[in-house]
TrEMBL record, chains A, B:
Documented EC number(s): 1.1.3.15
Top-rank taxon, per record: Bacteria
Keyword Endoplasmic reticulum attached: no
Recorded GO MF terms: (S)-2-hydroxy-acid oxidase activity; FAD binding
Species of the source: Amycolatopsis endophytica
Record carries keyword Zinc-finger: no
Protein family (similarity comment): Belongs to the FAD-binding oxidoreductase/transferase type 4 family.
Protein name: Glycolate oxidase
Pfam families per the UniProt record, alphabetical: FAD-oxidase_C, FAD_binding_4
InterPro entries: FAD-bd_oxidored_4_C, FAD-bd_PCMH, FAD-bd_PCMH-like_sf, FAD-bd_PCMH_sub2, FAD-linked_Oxase-like_C, FAD-linked_OxidoTrans_Type4, Oxid_FAD_bind_N, Vanillyl_alc_oxidase_C-sub2
Length: 475, 475
């Protein structure tokens, strides 16, 4: 039961649901939501629970609606290049089903082996290849979903193009279960890309690596992935998997190019030059696909490897590419200032950084310092023209950040949209934004009694209400 | 004044505005909308007026807000690959400004030399290259706009990724001025693609050409454009420009490939094979870039060339690619059945067809027959799993089609969203969907007195209310 009450954002509070329903059909989802609507009972939808912002965390005494058993690949149409899937299909299962037809579903969050398409839609998941191929929203053509009033509707289309009405499909994508509960997803697929060429660069400082990222953008390169992994991650993966990575570098940049023919070779050569120009201690085009795969595997293992070391608070800021070096420098300063270990993995080519703040389990003082560092990082990202969340979503952890990023007029637009699609506020209340009376009453953490009834207040323990960037914006 | 009262959908009714304001700054736009909000006066925004659905047509006695003088390219950032432009910037002017930095803004409606970015955003404009490169929504990162309550807000971001809150940017794109008035647009740019290779196929029937399109999709080809031009268009362009095209073919398919290096050559060869396999009388990879440009120029000239022949009612249905041959066959049947000339240009690779129904000016009987054919085409597109509008928008001409395509529950969601963003219903009332009291009162055509007050009724003369597809859906 506990595993269905929360996601992987271990710092975000979670309540105890009254009941968990594991739906097996759209009709069942509709029945549950219709009953919740009648009785004004909130409902929290969830997929695999791999989220990192607390978006799927349960609310005390309410319904959790798990969609993991709706896991059928309904259709792959190789001619139209579309797939129709139920929300509980694992991301990598869709990828495998498409690959059998020579097709490819590009979005690739690092959670791809475990996360569901429904969860990917709820958060507009990104991943490694978005720097060239875009995010979930770029691939979803249509949705079937249950509305906040318990009606089963179809949004979007199956055709390549279409402008019949407002883009409600795109609106629901990334809304974290607060505007509708998705029961079927129609995605566009691409032809499988050519085999990729990997370029690795080893750097002695994270800021040098950031400069290499900015240099590659200035050179006009479009890698299919451009990932950064720092020494903390390399060491944690080594400790766990004994791969010997951390001996060779403090920071690794991994780039991939999948242009066909000689164009990929040329791009790889130019990337090597960018790495070297930015001060790489070693930069090379991989000639060994197995070695290249191992490097990307290490990248994907970084998060679980760090989780073995303590409680991990995951950041997800995204800044303009030119600001990557400065943002990385500021993260290092925050780590020193607050005496906290901050590891960095990053979709560096997108400017989407994942500083990971690690504390010993049970060390309350370290936790407070980590929270202060988290607040500093959010403030720095906004100051550099960035956003508080690149791909993980707002959930619970980034609610104060969202209020700092958006103007009050834009927050009002959000509330209006929320009320339009969920008039009784039963869909995942307390997440993303407060919009209705049920949000006010949503008790999310058993330990937050002092915050209960405070409405839009941050969940206890998740965000320091005296954070400097909140003061700056007049909070 | 007349030219500012309507767009190019000559069959859509237009009223006479009380006043036209040609704004020169976001502050002026805000002042106008705030005044309209206070006094509950509708306001119709417009760019260059190249729309084809009547979306920018004036309403009797209300304000037209022209944005064509806000035509500044504010910024091109080659490192972040973004451009910031005012809404009145011409599409081709943005393209030219980007090209100076080696960058490219892909969406390319055939109106690109005359249409504005603001209008492109309002309709989510597509064009020739979307089959590979997507539509306007795929490129817009952020917007500045004036809301229905007269507030100036920023939506979206400048970063590559971001999920902070609902995708209101995407929601406003394609909303045809009914959810906000855009005052600045931030778009992402791409690196300029390599020079394209053109493949031309000549066919003796439009259905054979449709089969070639389906065959190329089945072969897994991803052309950067795949356009169809039929004999009516070829003859009209010949009449006008004397290019000698119609002597050689009944239907031409034009494909472009811009893969780098030899990959483009290989794709072009495979496309020639697809054309020949589907019965092309002649299929060739162009070796002469000037000749290839002339063929695409003819494609772009087709619409204005046909306008010289009579009143043109433009269709914009989009069907699954596999249904392109069947849809083209049904269009031919409709032409015969209603004794109407229907020319076809199509973004065939997207399944986005533009049958053009041509009647003599002043021939009321032909006009009625054309209207019946228009209704049949819409019904056929829906029956084949398509949408009533691929890229032109709903405006006035496709309002009945929208009601046929969307369920009443989804239409209710639209109305809720409209009311959330435009609570007094002052933004372009009477277009897309009826949502508020001002829509009911919106007198769009001076000649529609018998329809005034009927609320969501079709504008007089634009759609036959006895259309068979309306009956089938319970209208």
């Amino acid at each position: 039961m506990v595993s269905l009450a929360r996601d992987e954002a271990e710092w975000a509070p979670a309540g105890t649901p009254l009941a968990v329903v594991r739906a097996t059909s759209p009709a069942e989802v509709r029945s549950v939501v219709a009953a919740c609507y009648r009785h004004r009972v909130p409902v929290v939808a969830r997929g695999a629970g791999t989220g990192l912002s607390g978006g799927a965390n349960a609310v005390d005494g309410r319904i959790v609606l798990a969609l993991d058993r709706m896991d059928r690949v309904v259709e792959i149409d190789p001619l139209e290049r579309i797939a129709v899937v139920e929300p509980g299909v694992l991301k990598d299962d869709l990828r495998a089903a498409a690959a059998k037809q020579g097709l490819w579903y590009p979005p690739d969050p690092a959670s791809a082996p475990w996360s569901t398409i429904g969860g990917n839609v709820a958060t507009n998941a990104g991943g490694l290849c978005c720097v060239k191929y875009g995010v979930t929203r770029d691939y979803v053509l249509g949705l079937q979903m249950v509305t906040g009033t318990g009606e089963l509707v179809r949004l979007g289309r199956r055709t390549a193009k279409g402008v019949a009405g407002y883009d409600l499909t795109g609106l629901v994508i990334g809304s974290e279960g607060t505007l509708g509960i998705v029961t079927e997803v129609t995605v566009r697929l691409r032809a499988l890309p050519p085999p990729a060429i990997t370029v690795a660069g080893y750097f002695s400082s994270v800021v040098d690596a950031g400069r290499a990222v900015a240099a590659s953008a200035a050179a006009g390169l479009t890698p299919a992935a451009l990932e950064l992994v720092d020494r903390h991650c390399l060491a944690a993966v080594d400790d766990w998997k004994n791969m010997g990575l951390s001996i060779e570098a403090d920071v690794v940049l991994l780039a991939r190019f999948d242009e066909p023919g000689t164009a990929g070779d040329a791009a790889a050569e130019r990337m090597v030059a960018c790495f070297e120009g930015a001060g790489a201690t070693y930069a090379v085009r991989s000639t060994d696909e197995e070695e290249a795969e191992a490097l990307f595997a290490a990248r994907r293992l970084a998060y679980p490897a760090l989780e073995r070391l303590g409680a991990v608070l995951t950041e997800d800021v995204c800044v303009p590419t030119a600001q990557v070096p400065e943002m990385l420098a500021r993260i290092e300063r925050s780590a020193r200032k607050h005496a906290i270990t901050i590891a960095n993995i990053a979709h560096a080519g997108d400017g989407n950084l994942h500083p990971l703040l690690i504390t010993d389990h049970g060390d309350d003082d370290a936790r407070r310092r980590a929270q202060s560092a988290f607040d500093d990082i959010v403030a720095d990202a906004l100051a550099l023209g960035g956003t508080v969340t690149g791909e993980h979503g707002v959930g619970l952890l980034k609610k104060p950040g969202l209020r700092a990023e958006l103007s009050s007029a834009v927050l009002d637009l959000h509330r209006g949209v929320k009320r339009a699609l969920d008039p009784r506020g039963i869909l995942n209340p307390g997440k993303v934004i407060r919009a209705g009376p049920l949000d006010r009453a949503a008790v999310i953490a058993r330990s937050t009694s002092r915050d209960a009834g405070r409405g839009d207040a941050a969940p206890a323990g998740s965000v320091n209400v005296r954070a400097p960037w909140r003061r700056r914006r007049g909070w």
